[in-house]
Amino acid sequence: TNPGFVVRITQAGLDYANQQGIAILEKELAQLKLPDISGKSGKLRYTVSRLRLRDFHLPYSRITPIPNVGLQVSISNAFAELDGDWRVKFYFVRSHGSFNLKVEDVYIKITLRLGSDTAGKPTISTSDCSARISKVRLLLSGKFGWLYNLFHSVIESKLRKSLESKLCDNVAKSVQNELQTYIQTLPVTARIDDKTGIDYSLVAPPRTTAQSLDVDLKGEFYSLDHRSTVPFSPLPLAFPSDHNRMVYFGASSYFFNTAGIAYHKAGALVFEITEAMLPKDAGFRLDTSVFSAFIPQLEEMYPNMTMKFRLSAPTAPFLTIGPGGISFQPTVDAQAYAILPNSSLAPLFLLSLVRNVSAVINVRSGRIVGSVDVGRIRLSLKDSAVGTFEVEFLQSIMNYLTSNVLLPHVNARLDEGFPLALPNRIQLSNILVKYHQNFLLLGADVHFQPQ
């Protein structure tokens, strides 16, 4: 299944995510709990207890996408410091004290496997982890210095092994508790208003290439009342190899066209124009006396009565996206009514309005926003209860009503926007918008807001 919406995280985006993740892991490792260690070496019995990590530093790390495997995180030159107490018994000699352990040149390699669950949410887990500590320095304090040499290297070795195994346990726990929990905040469905929502579920597990991580999403608007199958499929997206931003979103023409279908099915593509909505400088009134200049029968049948228009889309609008931008040619039915003295409506005539529309898209506050501009209307008469007439005479009035009443309403709604597929606490900046064949490319840099 081709996706309707694609998210691409570039190496720059992965590096930023790695930076945030390492900061969290550093805090987690500083809370590491190590078990007491006791043992016997010849006639010497020893116990190491109350092990406390003072800090853990991960100064160098690198994240690399591995094609068809996942993500590999390599941490090098990490170092830590911990304190504890020691106690020994050697024949009749007993001694105890405290120690400080400096751990240096720590290397950790983590492989992260990416997938998706049955709900279409992304998943992440640790598929492999190895930790190696190259250097430990044990500093003991106590009364009997000669005793230290008897168990110094044994405790160093035991502490190294204990810490190495605990590191990977903690990494796996951190990935499960922190990273997996966080990426599950990516919305599978986003409710837009009381009529429609967007399906952002994954259509396949995330894909890693040598340069990026790609996430294919359904990218489909749907009516909340009655969801039905879209009568066409998404086309393949020929994603360009741009890498100047941390993240790119590919919104296909399918994505936008399902919005038209969803709103049409929900009965939302209906708009009424009344006298009260005319701008003060309109220069005319919406009543039969104005229109009777072009339609003589109106004056006889409905003299001096207020009118209104009901605009509706007989079919869902269908747009095309190309290098030149977004364009479509919607058809609108405009039913004119006379408002009778008892407030009931008398149908007058039904016009078909066709005009070229161009759209401009942007991103603001994590939402896709836009505006449309319209060309000149082409009119035709579909039905009339007041006889035939030349529709060309209504051209300027209908141009005015659609441009000055309908268009501001449409643009106000488009300016509210539709939510992008973003996990929690993500802000986008440095927005880039490019038009390609059959899809819109949105690029951005990312800022994560910690809790």
TrEMBL record:
Domain of life: Eukaryota
Stretches assigned to the Lipid-binding serum glycoprotein N-terminal domain: 8-226
Signal sequence, renumbered to the chain: none
Annotated InterPro entries: Bactericidal_perm-incr_a/b_dom, BPI/LBP, BPI/LBP/Plunc, Lipid-bd_serum_glycop_C, Lipid-bd_serum_glycop_N
Domain Lipid-binding serum glycoprotein C-terminal intervals: 241-444
One of the record's GO molecular function terms: lipopolysaccharide binding
Function: The cytotoxic action of BPI is limited to many species of Gram-negative bacteria; this specificity may be explained by a strong affinity of the very basic N-terminal half for the negatively charged lipopolysaccharides that are unique to the Gram-negative bacterial outer envelope.
UniProt remark on domains: The N- and C-terminal barrels adopt an identical fold despite having only 13% of conserved residues.
Record text on subunit structure and interactions: Monomer. Homodimer; disulfide-linked.
Identification of the protein by name: Bactericidal permeability-increasing protein
Organism: Sylvia atricapilla (blackcap)
